[in-house]
Amino acid sequence: MGGEKNKARDMVEEEEEPLSPCSRLFNSPDFNCAIIVTMGCKVKGNPPAIIDGLKHTLANHPRFSSILDMKNGKKGKPRWVRTKVRVEDHVIVPDIEPNTENPDQYLEDYISKLTTVPLDLSKPLWEIHVLCLKTSNAESIGILKIHHSLGDGMSLMSLFLACTRKTSDPEALPTVAVQKKQFGPSCYTGFFNKIWWLFVGLWFILRLVFNTFIDVLMFALTICFLGDTETPLLAKPGSELKPKKFVYRIISFDDVKLVKNAVNMTVNDVLLGVTQAGLSRYLSRRYDQAATPKSKDLMRRIRLRSAIMINLRPNTGIEALADMMAKKSKCRWGNLFGYILLPFSLGLETDPLEYLRRAKVTVDRKKHSLEAVFSMAFFKLILKVLGLKASVVLVRKVIHSTTLSFSNVVGPKEEITFHGHPLSYIAPSVFGHPHALTLHFQSYENKVIISVTADPTVIPDPHKMCDDLVESLKLIKSSVLERGLYEMEV
Question: For a surface tag, which of 222, 264, 308, 420 has the fewest beta carbons within 10 Å of its beta carbon?
C-alpha cells in the first residue's frame, strides 16, 4: 500500500515542475516576452499536414504540453503542469481574401496585431498561424508564437529545427554549423614551447580577470545611473506594451563569408560591423547630417549599447530534442542566461572597413569576459534574497538604460521542410521587452535574414533601417573587392 502511494506521488511530481527563476521573470506582468518565428513556405499552406506533424513533435515536448499554474505549486510557487494537448486548438488559420491587394503589408499588419494579443493561459503557451497568403518571397506563411518562459532563444530555435527535416532527405535532420573552439597549438612538445604557452595562458587569465572586472563595473554603473545617449532609437516609457512592426530583408550569406574571409574575421564580426554601419547611416539621416569631421566626432560621442541575452546552458543538440519528442525521452531544457552589455561604435566613416575593425575589437574583448556569468549569478541572488519584483526592476533598469536588443543565430546549411512545407526563409524575433528596436540575424542555407522589430512610435520607418543595413554590406563588400583583398585571400 505504501509503495503504491510513493509511486503515485512520484507520478504527480513528474507531471509537475516548478518554474525556473528566468521563466518566472518572463512571466512577470512587467516583462511578458514572446518569440515570433515567421516561416516563408514554398508551397501552399496545408494545415492538416501541420497539425498531424505537430502531434508527433511539439505536442510531445514537456514544456509544449504543460499549462502554467501561477499559485498552486509547492509553497504557492508557480509550476508547470502536464496536460493533454489538443493540437487543433493551437493551429489558427485565418480567413484571407484570395486577391489581397498588398499581401506583404497584410502580413506585417497581421504580425503586428499578434503582439497585442496575449497567449491563452488555460492551455500550453504556444500557437502557430497558417496564412494561405502569397507574398513576394513565399507561397504561404507560417507564424510560430511561443512564450519566452518556455525556453531561451537558442533552445527554442534548436527545438524548431528538430521539428524539420532536410528537403533533400525527408528522414534526415538539418545540418547546423558548430563553431570549433581551440586554445593553443595542437602540439605542446618542446621545453621552450611549453614555457611560451604557459606565459600565454597566464596572459589569458589576467586579461579575462581585467575584462570581467571592467564589464561588471560598467554593469553596476548601468544599474545605478549610466544610461545610453538619448537618440531617435531610444525607447519611450511603455514601449513594451505598444504594437510592434516586424520587417525583414534577405541578403546573401556568400557576400558575408566573402568579406569574412577577405579581412580574416568571423561572421559575428562582419554582422556587427554591418550593424554599426547601418545604424550610423540611419541616425545620420534622422539627424540630417552630412559626412563631415564635426558630424563624425558627434556620432562617436553617442553611447549606444545592446543588452544581449547569453545562453549559459550547454546547447541541447537537435538530435537529442528530436529523440525527446519522438521517444518521450529526457534532455536538458529551460531558461538559463545572463546579460552582457555590447557597445556599438557609431560614426560616418569614409573607410567602410573601419566598422569591421571596430566590431572585431569589441567582439574579441567580450569573448574574454565572464560578464554573462556574473550577471546571471547576481540576478539569481537578488531573486532569492529580495524576490521576483526586485529582480524585474533590475532587469528593466538594465534594458531601459540600453538602446536595442541584438542577436545572431546560426541556422541550417541546406533547405529544410516543416511538416511538408519547404521553407524559403526563417525570420525569428522577440517582443514584450522594453526596447523600441530589436535586430536579429538568422542564417539559412545561402542566405542571411535580417529581422527588424520596431516600435513605430519611436522608429516610424523600419524599412529604411533594413535598407541601410543592406546598403552597408554592399559598401563593405565593394571596398573589399576594390582593394583586391578577396583575391589576395584566395
Answer: 264
